[in-house]
Amino acid sequence: MYEPLNIGHSASEPFTDYSRWRLLVNDGGRHTWHYLRTDEECAKWPQNSIDKFWLGMKTNLPELPPAQNPMEAARNGYTFYKNLQAHDGHWPGEYGGPMFLLPGFVIGSYVSEMGFKDEERREMIRYLMNRAHPDDGGWGIHVEGHSTVFGTGLNYAALRILGVDAEHPVCVRARATLHKLGGAAAIPSWGKFWLSLLNVYDWEGNNPVPPELWVLPDWLPFHPHRWWIHTRTVYVPMSFLYGVRFKAEENDLILSLREELYVQDYYTIDWPAQRNNVCKADLYAPHSALFDTINIVLSAYEQCILPPFRRAGVEKAYELIVLEDENTEYQTLGPVSKMFNLVARAYREGPDSYAYKQHKLKRQDFMWVGKDGMMACGTNGSQLWDVGFITQALVETGLAKLEENKDSLLKALEWLNDSQIQQDPQHHHTSYRHSTKGAWGFSTKEQGYTVSDCTGEGLKAVMYLQNHLDFTPKLVSERRMCDAVDLMLTLQNPNGGFASYELIRGPKWLEWLNPAEVFGDIMTEYCYPECTTSVITSLAIFRKHYPYYRAHDIDRTIRTAITYLHGSQKPEGGWVGSWGICFTYATQFALESLSLVGETYETSEVSRRACEFLIGKQRKDGGWGESYKSCEQGAWVEHAETQVVQTCWAVMSLMYARYPHPEPIARAVQMVMSRQLPDGSWAQEAIEGVFNKTCAIAYPNFKFSFPIWMLGKAHGYMADLKTSSLS
Ligand code: LAN
């Protein structure tokens, strides 16, 4: 599909003219990058600070008077960050990190004959070149990880599809690493699947993915509608594509990849023997004996399938794919299911279909051009999440009241108003969806998935803006806030905790069926301290403003949620984070929750232990630094460098707990202030987020929202401590 490209050895300079890229923000926060071909177009649509900042170009924003105290530093921070707010009120941002997503976009598009524009493919190539591991030229599961077969095999195939020659030094080096790791035969199951679609891995090398599970009765404890939503929305199209054994038509590139990816002769590989062959460097969650046994049985079934049963399963899976596409306007829940759905729809309905065109249009929402090239993102953005934090930061610090910030807050409120989901999904029960009426999702309203904590943070942000400030209109009605509350109340689990998108629907033992090898805890929902906190803190604030609405239910929910939080504290004093790194992240949330019921350092053993735990991790320079490896291991792993964002989380924790000693806080504040740049911004440091235990993911807007929040709050906090120690 792509002409071979003559690519130089260095990827440090852009392969396209960076002054021609523009970020288009429209339709409720969708953001897509466009390359302008002519000077006239460029003159009509000049590059703004948002484009320049994210492209890594000079923004030329002015130097600010040096901050004399934490509040001035926070104010300078926002003076800068305000320039990155889009016209519709939200803060667009890059959401990269995982290194197994771009190959899905490249391979999925290739096998569906859906091209990328020339500038896009050039910048994707550059991105992959820039992300190749400096030590060995391979790729890992995420940008900071060690090279694995999953990362290296898939990204190598992507580079080749995009037109890079097999003898280009980047390919030569990556191939050597892949071969050293044992070659693509030992790629984990999701990699086997992508390579099978590309027709460079035999379907016989995959464990069965039977679509028949969909036609089994819903009450079965292992029915896939009980799985964690991401796992099941990936499994839906996978089971369809497996059922029809989709594979791309052979061509020269495919024949050549069959030679390049393996250490052995492709045509002599014993494929069934590869089903459980996974390279050690990749392995995080080895198969259970139960899963291996089930696979033996299912493999036997594959030899004698019942055609009507298979057909029914394939049709049911296809129906679910269509329902998901329609529920989400073709955004789909996430980037993996997006590309599997796209391949399935392209296969069934062809390139002239509406589905094909819509998928192509929305594919763009996952692509992002950063300073190192074009990447694929973890979702179609983190819009709500970023608006939620910065608006709360501004209100809590008092920066919201400054005349200079009012317009920006009004715009943010408009965005929050527009992004609340006001109906249940179009296909609600037929697609096994939880309600959505009253929810906020993680990205946009169009994507349309309830997330418990995003609803919490969205509602909090609205209440802060509408009820704590005197200049804002009441755009979100009381009724709509009650809808959000009603929805959150449906999401509490029997142990008091809140999970991510839904209630926990399946038994814990489903984890024994985890097929993915590279991720942990993905088969069912779990309760998370982070999600629990966002929900109950928003309920508590709501209760203050509207004390008569479902007061009893709210009280009970908060009470039982606190019990869950007590129970999930680690003996050392912290909480393990699942969505941010790691203890510093989750402990911040847990202590916020505890403060709400009056549990602080002085009054609660739980809170005190948490503070002591954090204080024990403070570094000589006053900051904190935790590696993403903490999330893999469930135990604190120190980062080589102190991290601004984690330092802010730690200090926020101490302040929530009303930690009485000013000195550690003052040192941390000094550290964060010392890293502020003359224009008020902070430099990007290590990656901030994580998911499924092993995969790091970037939240680059955190380096603005949390320092602004922490510094502004610490300013008042330290003054309070002084007065209380004087009195
Ligand atoms: C996210 C991003 C946001 C995150 C929070 C809101 C922070 C969290 O508190 C709840 C869970 C949620 C919504 C979340 C779930 C898993 C996601 C969607 C991601 C980490 C972003 C990418 C990830 C998704 C699973 C990536 C695709 C990979 C697969 C394994 C399917």
Question: What can you tell me about this protein's structure?
Answer:
A two-stranded antiparallel ribbon has the order 1-2. A two-stranded antiparallel sheet has the order 3-4. The protein is mainly alpha-helical. The longest helix is centred in the last third of the chain and has 25 residues, at 702-726. The protein is globular, with a radius of gyration of 25 Å. Helix 9 packs parallel to helix 13 and helix 19 (529-545) packs parallel to helix 21. The protein contains 26 helices and 8 strands. The protein starts with 20 loop residues before the first strand and ends with a helix. The structure holds lanosterol (LAN). Lanosterol is lined by residues 230, 234, 334-336, 378-379, 385, 442, 451, 453-454, 500, 519, 530-531, 579, 691-692, 697. This is Terpene cyclase/mutase family member. Residues 382-714 form the Squalene cyclase C-terminal domain. Pfam families: SQHop_cyclase_C (PF13243), SQHop_cyclase_N (PF13249).
Q: Which features would summarize this protein structure in a list?
A:
single chain, 727 residues, mainly alpha, two-stranded antiparallel sheet, two-stranded antiparallel ribbon, 8 strands, globular, binds lanosterol, isomerase
Question: What's a quick, concise take on this entry?
Answer:
48% of the residues lie in helices and 5% in strands. It has 727 residues and is mainly alpha-helical.
